[in-house]
Structure formats: C-alpha cells, structure tokens
Amino acid sequence: MYNPDGSLLRAEQMRLLDILVAVDAICRTENIGYWLDAGTLLGAVRHGGFIPWDDDIDICILKKDYKRFKAAMLRSLPPNMAYQDWTTDPYHFEMAVRIRDLNSLFDQEESRFQKWRGLFLDVVLLENMPSMRFHDFLYPLYGRVTRTLHNQGYAQGKSGVRIAAEKVAAIVLLPFAEALRGLGAIVAALKGNGLVGRYYSGFRNPRHLANVFPLGEIDFEGCSFKAPGNADLYLREMFGDYMKLPSEEQRGGHQVHIELYR
Question: What is the structure's pLDDT at 203?
Fold first, then answer.
C-alpha cells in the first residue's frame, strides 16, 4: 500500500539501506558500538524492516565514541557517500551527524545552503544526563545556542542583522550553557542511572543504557544490524504499546521533494 516494489518510496528505502550497510561494516571493523533507534528499530521489530511509510534511518552512538566514529567514516565511507557535521559543512546546524548519499536529492528548505542534500542516515550522539527534567530545562537554551552559532538563521531566511545579533547573544550564553551541561554530566555520574539523551535538539523519550548493552543483533530488510540488547523495554520507553499501528492519518514520512540519480 505504501512502498510496493517499483515505487519511489521503496527505491528511497533501498538507497537508505545501502548507507546503513556501509556504516555497519565500518563500525564492525573499527569496533564502534552503534544501534538502531527510534522508527528504524521499531520497523525492525514490528515489520522486519522499514515501517512501510517511513523514509529515514536513525542510529545512536555514545558521544564518547564520536571522534572515533568520525575518523572511521571519513577514512572508509564509499565515494558515493559523505560524512556531514559542523566540521565538514558550515551550514549543517545540528550536532547530529548525517551520512549523506551523493546521488540523490532530499529537498528540505532548511538544508538549502548545505554542502550535501541527498538522502541521509541520522547518527544521534547520546550522553549521560541526570534526568529528563534537567534535559527539558537545558535543551531550549543549549539547543538554540548551538544551532544559532552554526548558521541555522540562514536556513530560516532571517535578515543579516538579526543573524548577527542572535550570534552575539549565543556567544555570550554558550559558556553558561556548557557549564550547565558539565554540571549535568557530574550529577549523572554520581547518580549512575544510565539515562542518556541529547541536549542539542528535542529528544524527549528516555533511553537507558541498561536496555542497550550488551548490544544484540536484529534483522532489518534481510540484513543483520546492531540493536539494543533489550529492544522490547527500549521501545516501550519510547512508544508505549509499540506493536499497535498508528491511525492512517498518523502515517507518513517527510513531505519533501525527492530525486534519485543513477
């Protein structure tokens, strides 16, 4: 109904699968722990692959593994893919890493200035935090400051004067935001609750490392990928009764123009 063979959505999903296969192979070679997350993990458990109407892939890594992950991807990604973060694309304003396909177009307005605009796999960087309440307090500050400093204003079509003013304010607020983030890390270490999340963008579903490690394996579109060791509890924390299908009105991916080349 949503992604029959020969449809654009199914072709897009297969291109995304190619990215995941490449990332998985590099992570296994370099011994970097990653796992399927969010709708990708849900699709693996409930559908054995993509949620039929889904058009993206999400994986997680721990923030402490970020530098190794980046170095491995820059060194080993195939030539038809690119590693995208703040350091490789000045207009990529999210801290989340993206692995982009170079032979497609995912035409989002917010990415119109970015160096690469093809289909992508999102890599979410997770760090320890003391509580979701602390996350919800810090996220509006830290997320806005960091995205402002990394040119989100251009993506939003703001005037040059407003962009400059917001960047000055962000520079002033950044040390305060970083200090709060550091305090959160200390409290999280003392509590030892294994709660992880991200402060740089909305991510309000809790994730606990006790449900992640040791990592397991899961089938996704006929291939085996890394998954949380207790995928059931992991998904229940995120979605509740995750085996229940959403209403038809709630089904659908990104409403964007997509082109596939080659």
Answer: 66
Q: Token pair of 65, please?
A: 């593994």
Q: What is the pLDDT of residues 203-228, one digit of tens each?
A: 678 899 999 999 999 999 999 999 99
Condensed to tens digits (0 to 9), the pLDDT of residues 21-79 reads: 999 999 999 999 999 999 999 999 999 999 999 889 999 999 999 999 999 999 999 99
By the 10 Å C-beta count (0-12 exposed, 13-18 middle, 19+ buried), 99 is classed as buried
Query: Could you name the CATH architecture of 8-127+202-260?
Result: 2-Layer Sandwich (3.30)
Average of per-residue pLDDT across 84-89: 93
* CA atoms in the 13 A half-sphere facing the CB of 55: 20
**CA gap 203, 132 in Å, rounded:** 10
Q: Domain locations in the chain? A: 8-127+202-260
Partners of 81 in beta bridges: 101
Question: 64, 60, 87, 63: which is closest to 74 by C-alpha?
Answer: 87
The residue type at 124? V
Cα separation, 211 vs 37, whole angstroms:
12
